[in-house]
Give the backbone structure.
Amino acid sequence: MSRTHIPLLTLALLAAAGLAGCQRPQAGAAADADAQAVPVTLATVVEEPIRRYIQVSGTLVAQERAEVAAEITGRVVATPIERGSRVNAGSELIRISSAEVMAQAEEAEANVAQIDARLGMTGAGEGFDVERVPEVANARAAQQLAQTELARARRLRDSQLLSDADFDQRAAQADAASRQYDTARNTALQQFQSLVAARARASLARKALADAVVRAPFAGMVAERLVSVGDYVTKGTKVASVIRVDPLRVELTVPAQFVAEVAVGRTVTMVVDAYPDEIFTGAVRYVSPALNADSRALVVEAELANADGRLKPGLFATSRIEQATKQNTVLVPAAAVRTIAGAARVFVATGEGADRRVEERVVAVGQVVGDRVEIATGLSPGDQVVVDGLERVVDGIRIAAR
């Protein structure tokens, strides 16, 4: 072999070694790429009809509020309630001295009993019969006797056995008896009217006696106690303020474009600042028959239960009113959505088989429906999104669906 051929052989061997060296790292890179496929769980994007909500706000107010006033004049002798006390309907709020009204009630009852006895009425439920009044009954008997005597006298006169003078005397007696009977009836009727008036005065006296205790008009809570023991009050003096806090009401203003979607009985969910992690549920109880002329909005009133009293009048409430109709929309599990720098993002699976990868998409998130969320833009029904393993995926990385 000539010397000129040795360098050529050496170069050929070096080139072959270099080619073999280049081919081995490429095979290792492919193996490394397969090892980097991230295991994830995928969920399919679906389209379903959902009930939409109108987002509005308002302030909680008491169902009812009563400024309770005294009905009689007198001095306050007891105040068994304080501000914040819970009361039932009819519970005692304030007690006023009842000595004077009690005496008036006893006097009125005695007057009724006196007239009852005079009229011969022995039972409170007994109806009035003027003919049963003793004076009237006596006058009627005297009248009947006089009429009988007059009839006998007339027969005797006709038989020439009684003089005209005696007959005239009998006739005068009968006429007087009739007038006495009429007088007795009129007197009894007047006395009965006096009885009616006496009973009315007795009823007023009993009411005044009952009004010596000022009572709660409904079950609720005492917001204010305005008098103390020893205060002198007159009729109409405000003594306490009572509010009903179960249920509570909230007045909401609904934009005009949603008028057709609001109706009595529609479900309302609310969140208040005091309990940001809780949702309170109520219902629409009133829908205004007309829009507000200034705001062109509809006034809606909702009602929600508050048996435990945790919610307080005056709290600001963010509310959602359920709309009447359902609309189709795209839904994904809430776990598939990740918010970065204020933008909602999802990872969508693309490709097939061993070369399956993820594509990061910015989406517009809509309404939350249970454990799913509405996607307004960015996804289509049938797309598959990553719901588990999000912390290990980035745009373009290879994935292996579990």
